[in-house]
Design a protein that fits this description.
72% of the residues lie in helices and 0% in strands. The protein contains nine helices and no strands. It has helices at residues 2-29, 46-57, 66-89, 102-125, 129-138, 147-175, 183-213, 228-239, 248-276. Helix 7 (183-213) crosses helix 8. One of its GO terms (cellular component) is mitochondrial inner membrane.
Length: 278
């Protein structure tokens, strides 16, 4: 049941944030490996990107890829949040004295993130026809192209997100700012987690987006980057340190609300379930 509630919470958040994912991806690929000032900027900022995509490609383009995104979120975050929830319910995130352990929380978040992201990676690559084409062209292994490269991003993001969320909830409960069962407790913790995860993930997010979108040879090997470290180094060398945070505004508008909504929905669904099954 934990996995089902986790997947539903992530899908609920995805419906609202998928347009932000479309905008973020386009902004991150803009001017790829080109020095600042040497290319035409189609999107000046997040809001300009929204307007431009809506005008040029139509409003439906802002929800492009929604179906595979929902499937990916249900699978990836269903496993990730479900696994973390089981670890939390089993008491593995607390010390022998019963206090919350940020280190254990971060480790559990990282492991849960790796499991979810690796199993969900083929869905991230595309859906149905795309999966068939990738499988026929590059074999079964091709469905996981870029998956290992994306794991550092997932480890950093998942551990930061879940550790910050649990630690903030624990701290606010100790300070008695909100009652332990208040929805405000989960909402504030999710907001803090949203800021932390965007700052931690932005460079890896840029590199991962470029790894997945780079052209490949006949064997499915990337033609531009050898891996996530190479993508980070090339981006920093060519576009500067700010190139690694390209599209951070769009990243926050997507990851921030998605983190807030998914963690809030997840927490509230679990609270309702445990309340009515006791």
């Amino acid at each position: 049941m934990d996995f089902l509630m986790s997947g539903l919470a992530a899908c609920g958040a995805c419906v609202f944030t998928n347009p932000l994912e479309v905008v973020k991806t386009r902004m991150q690929l803009q001017g790829e490996l080109q020095a600042p000032g040497t290319y035409q900027r189609h999107y000046r900022n997040v809001f300009h990107a929204f307007i431009t995509i809506g005008k040029v490609d139509g409003l439906a383009a802002l929800q492009k890829g929604l179906a595979p995104a929902l499937l990916y979120q249900f699978l990836m975050n269903g496993i990730r949040l479900g696994t973390y929830g089981l670890a939390e319910a089993g008491g593995y995130l607390h010390t022998a004295e019963g206090t919350h352990s940020p280190a254990r929380s971060a480790a559990a978040g990282a492991m849960a993130g790796v499991m979810g992201a690796y199993l969900g990676s083929p869905i991230y690559m595309g859906m149905f026809q795309a999966l068939t084409e990738i499988g026929q062209k590059h074999g079964l292994v091709g469905l996981w192209r870029g998956a290992l490269g994306g794991l550092p991003r997932v480890i950093i993001g998942s551990s930061t997100q879940l550790c910050t969320f649990s630690s903030t909830k624990d701290l606010l409960s100790q300070w008695e700012i909100f009652s332990p069962q208040s929805w405000k407790l989960a909402l504030v913790a999710a907001m803090v987690s949203g800021i932390a995860v965007v700052l931690a993930m932005a460079p890896f997010d840029v590199a991962c987006t470029r790894l997945y979108n780079q052209p490949t040879d006949a064997q499915g090997k990337g033609l531009m980057y050898r891996g996530i470290l190479d993508a980070l180094l090339q981006t920093a060398r060519t576009e500067g340190i700010f190139g690694m945070y390209k599209g951070i505004g769009a990243s926050y508008f997507r990851l921030g609300p998605h983190t807030i909504l998914s963690l809030f929905f997840w927490d509230q669904l679990r609270s309702l379930y445990y309340t009515y099954t006791k």
